[in-house]
């Protein structure tokens, strides 16, 4: 009898411990869920089919559409809107008045750690008159971009293309990036920089304020566009342009130094630039001859000079606009 009583007490003690452990685990889970709960203001309108991540903050007078997906730790400030088939990555900030996406076919994808400024319009319908209502159109934005107030970035004009923005770009106030543009990484566009449709911008470029770029132009890496420039033709890599219409004004020397180009590389580029664009007064060679000679010298090499030659040569390919004008300054 004593053994049976002892066994009964042991079973009761085990069950009691199990209940306490289960209760403690349930309380911990509840606390964790509470910590990850998103805040949605009562004055916000969030469709029940929208997908909202953890730790999301949605302020008053915001609207979130049925097909929207908001990543973890995003902040939607008062009066901002996420519409249509739009995906917002983690830790993004959408400022007051900004509009993301549109209720049209297609999709807007925005990566992580992006800041969307006040009253920006991102992923809205393009302004291309060739766009046909009902066609799908797309915009894809990478990570760590800061897109400031009143910027507009449009979706593509057709389903077989897309507007693309890379990573780590600073796009200042009132800039415009039109349909089917392709923007690389680590670019800085000053206020009121305007890109028409199908413009290609490579990496690490800079623009001063009030720059206008014609449709289908290519802007090469590490180039600089001076304030007020009207760019109607391609800007090769490493170069600087200014004026209306924009002309080549030499190499972007300051930009090259800031981006880690060695003194030797800069000197090589300067020598190559002078050879092509600044021939001696008694030189009888044409631009094509000088470019071909430099191209022959850099064949099979992988140096900044070879990349510059490649950029110039590609600008004269089929469907391209050629390079900006240059003056034949004598040495």
Looking at this protein, list some descriptive labels.
single chain; 331 residues; alpha/beta; UDP N-Acetylglucosamine Acyltransferase, domain 1; Udp N-acetylglucosamine O-acyltransferase, Domain 2; twelve-stranded mixed sheet; ten-stranded parallel sheet; 24% helix; elongated; lipid metabolism; UDP N-acetylglucosamine O-acyltransferase C-terminal domain-containing protein
Can you tell me about this structure?
The protein contains five helices and 31 strands. The termini are far apart. Among the domains are: 39-198, UDP N-Acetylglucosamine Acyltransferase, domain 1 (3 Solenoid), CATH 2.160.10.10; 258-315, Up-down Bundle (Udp N-acetylglucosamine O-acyltransferase, Domain 2), CATH 1.20.1180.10. The protein has helices at 2-35, 253-258, 263-277, 287-297, 304-315, and strands at 39-40, 45-46, 51-52, 57-58, 63-64, 69-70, 75-76, 81-82, 86-88, 93-94, 99-100, 106-110, 115-116, 121-124, 137-141, 146-147, 152-154, 163-165, 170-171, 176-177, 182-183, 188-189, 194-195, 200-201, 206-207, 212-213, 218-219, 224-225, 230-231, 239-242, 247-251. It is α/β, with parallel strands linked by helices and 331 residues long. Helix content is 24%, strand content 24%.
Task: Describe this structure in a few short sentences.
By secondary structure, this protein is of the alpha/beta class. The protein contains 5 helices and 31 strands.
> How much of the sequence is in beta strands?
15-25%
Q: What oligomeric state do these chains adopt? A: single chain
Low-confidence stretches: 17-35
| Number of beta-strand segments | 31
CATH names the topology of the domain at 39-198 as: UDP N-Acetylglucosamine Acyltransferase, domain 1
What is the CATH superfamily classification of the domain at 39-198? Hexapeptide repeat proteins
Which second-level CATH architecture of the domain at 39-198 applies?
3 Solenoid
- Characterize the largest beta sheet: strand count, sense, and whether it forms a barrel: 12 strands, mixed
- Overall 3D shape: elongated
Instruction: Briefly note the structural class of the backbone.
Output: alpha/beta
Helical fraction: 10-25%
Placed side by side, the strands forming the largest sheet appear as 1-4-7-10-13-16-19-22-25-28-30-31
Number of helices: 5
């Amino acid at each position: 009898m004593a053994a049976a009583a002892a066994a009964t007490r042991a079973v009761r003690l085990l069950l009691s411990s199990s209940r306490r452990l289960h209760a403690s685990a349930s309380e911990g889970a509840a606390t964790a869920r509470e910590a990850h709960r998103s805040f949605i203001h009562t004055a916000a309108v969030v469709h029940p089919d929208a997908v909202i991540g953890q730790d999301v903050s949605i302020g008053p007078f915001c609207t979130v559409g049925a097909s929207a997906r908001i990543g973890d730790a995003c902040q939607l400030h008062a009066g901002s809107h996420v519409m249509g088939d739009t995906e917002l990555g983690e830790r993004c900030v959408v400022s007051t008045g900004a509009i993301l996406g549109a209720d049209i076919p297609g999709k807007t994808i925005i990566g992580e750690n992006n800041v969307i400024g006040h009253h920006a319009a991102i992923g809205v319908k393009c302004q291309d008159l060739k766009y046909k209502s009902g066609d799908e159109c797309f915009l894809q934005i990478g990570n760590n971009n800061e897109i400031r107030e009143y910027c507009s970035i449009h979706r593509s004009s057709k389903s077989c293309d897309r507007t693309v923005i890379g990573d780590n770009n600073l796009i200042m106030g009132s800039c415009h990036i039109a349909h089917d543009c392709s923007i690389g990484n680590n670019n800085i566009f000053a206020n009121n920089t305007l890109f028409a449709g199908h413009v290609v911008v490579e990496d690490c470029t800079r623009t001063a304020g009030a720059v206008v770029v014609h449709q289908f132009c290519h802007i090469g890496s590490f180039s600089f566009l001076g304030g007020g420039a009207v760019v109607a033709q391609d800007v090769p890599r490493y170069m600087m342009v200014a004026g209306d219409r924009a002309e080549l004004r030499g190499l972007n020397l300051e930009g090259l130094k800031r981006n880690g180009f060695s003194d030797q590389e800069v000197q090589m580029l300067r020598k190559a630039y002078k050879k092509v664009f600044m021939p001696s007064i008694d030189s009888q060679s044409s631009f094509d001859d000088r470019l071909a000679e430099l191209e022959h010298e850099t064949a099979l090499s992988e140096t900044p000079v070879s990349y510059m030659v490649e950029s110039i040569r590609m600008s004269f390919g089929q469907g391209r606009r050629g390079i900006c004008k240059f003056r034949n300054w004598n040495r």
